[in-house]
Amino acid sequence: MTIKKITPYQILDSRGEPTLQVVMTSDSGKSASFSVPTGASKGKFEAIEKRDGDAPFGGKGVLICLDIINNVISPKFIGYPLDQLQDFDGLLIALDGTKNKENLGSNTLLALSGAYLKLSALENEKPLWQYIAELNKTSPEYPKLFANIVGGGKHAPGLDIQEYMIVPESTSPSVAISTIYDVYHTVQKIMKNLYGPSAMLVGDEGGLAPLGTSSEVILEALSQLNGKMASNFDIALDSAANSFYKDGVYNIENQSIHAAELYKLYQEWNSKFNIFSIEDPFAETDIEGLEILKGMANQEKPFLIIADDYTVTSKIKIDEFQKDGIFDGIIIKPNQVGTFTETFEAISAAKASGAEVVVSHRSGETSDSSIVDLAYGIGAIGIKIGSPARGERVEKYNRLLEIEADLDANQKKAAGSQQAPTGPAPILRDPAPTSQSAPPVSQDMPGAPVSSNNSSPQPVAQFQPPTSPLAQPKAAPTLAI
Ligand code: 2PG
Ligand code: MG
Predict the structure, then answer these.
(1) Which of 69, 93, 126 is the last residue of a domain?
(2) How far apart are CA 465 and CA 342, in angstroms?
């Protein structure tokens, strides 16, 4: 099979900004499309997107990418065989000829690389995750969901920390998603009661965006809900600390502090609320912050340290930091580097260093759900796909549910079951939470408990906001939900 046609489109992303979509058609007549997301809180060393620079769309248009594809790429690749991603991406990288893709643009390259990858999977009649797993010789695993419940930073007004997430212990997508649903909607009610109806508005990733609140209020609310849902969960943060670091100082919740004090604050939160992981805890340019991380390298830490802006899905950057064993987890975002081949190299480098891999969306997303197949296919420990709100995020939750339902149906078929599934996949629940962490319940586990019909969130009888001076809520302190 070969490439017959490459059609680029300028479309809009979830923030209404222009982005690039490529539809690639093979000589058998099959088509696959890939559309490119964009970040708001970017690492300094991310590959460079190509944009028009002139009106319309305030210079953010990508018509220049359409020109590049129509006039430079297409003539070279029509008739090019499918199924050779590494060579295809290698040629694109060589054509660009720069370290940071500034010539053709990371968006141009990724749209082509993604469409080629998806079309190759389609021609092989394999789901994308399976094609990716075979290409990388990896074992597919359900990733843990790092679900954004409350947002701030560059994604929403109000809070300085960018993401307050929960990570359900259960790796069964349907159990984890029902937990996320319950927590999200319960926190929404809590926020509405504390701060009024405007607290129900959401940020770029669908995370709630209350004004006049504080980290301690959010963390307290999340920790009070733990143990009351379908699955127990951990609490995780993405500080995206670049966005509140200026002139050597972190400006956070009315304090101007240095890295050591910020780390103390994290420790305080951890001792009160038990934080599982913190992504980008310090700004990537802050030497003092990096020294703190280096001092803890290769040691057991109070919470996992995850790199995003530091490592930007670059094998070179990952190797550089991980020779010192600085990070416990590495965020993987294909558009930070520009091709899927380089994304796979970054994943291998992260895994080889002993770090966990967490695949991630961007704050400016499209309806493309390939990152879900990527995370499952390469057996990532986690995936960030925002909140269960807004179409472009929900698309990814739905893809995960689809993969689970398909696998389930296949397993049943293989087991010789006569009963074809007719309705939605059953929602399984973890055993009743105990003081110990409950083991994850897998759908294929014999005798796994079946959901009761009552899947509505447990009421939070008396949510008591914390009284720390750093966290004075503006509204009534005690509320019944
Ligand atoms: C992040 C991402 C996604 P952005 O910092 O991890 O949550 O945000 O896409 O704006 O870089
Ligand atoms: Mg991040």
Answers:
(1) 126
(2) 45
Cα distances (angstroms) measured from residue 432 to each of 228, 331, 428, 440:
9, 32, 12, 12
* pTM given for the model: 0.88
Q: Which residues have C-beta atoms less than 6 Å from ligand 1?
A: 39-42, 154, 162-163, 205, 238, 240, 308, 360-363, 384
- Looking at residue 380, its amino acid is A
Cα(152) to ligand 2 centroid in Å equals: 12
E strand intervals along 152-288: 163-168, 233-238, 245-246, 249-252, 255-257, 275-279
Joined together, the tokens standing for residue 41 give 């809180």
Structure tokens belonging to residue 350: 């992260």
Identify residue 76 by its one-letter amino acid code. K
68 and 183 part of one domain: no
Q: Which residues of the chain fall below pLDDT 50?
A: 422-461, 467-481
Query: In ligand 1, which atom is closest to the CA atom of 361?
Result: 3
Measured in Å, residue 285 CA sits from the centre of ligand 2 at 15
User: Residue 39 CA: which ligand 1 atom is closest?
Assistant: 9
Nearest to 24 by CA among 99, 84, 80: 80
Share of the chain above pLDDT 70, in %: 86
Q: For the CA atoms of the chain, what is the radius of gyration?
A: 22
Q: How far is the CA of 43 from the centre of ligand 2 (A)?
A: 9
Confidence (pLDDT) at 464: 59
Range of the domain at 121: 3-126
Q: At which of 392, 414, 436 does a domain end?
A: 414
CATH of the domain at 10: 3.30.390.10
In the prediction, which pLDDT does 416 show? Answer: 86
For β-strands 18-26 and 3-12, DSSP reports them as antiparallel
Has 333 been annotated as catalytic? yes
φ/ψ of residue 346, rounded to 5: -65, -40
Distance from C-alpha of 47 to C-alpha of 93, rounded to nearest angstrom: 12
Could you tell me if residue 213 is inside a domain? Answer: yes
CA count, 13 A, side-chain hemisphere, 120: 21
Residue 43 Cα to chain centre, angstroms: 15
What is the number of structural domains in the chain? Answer: 2
The dihedral built from the CA positions of residue 387, 388, 390 and 394, taken in this order, carries a sign that is: positive
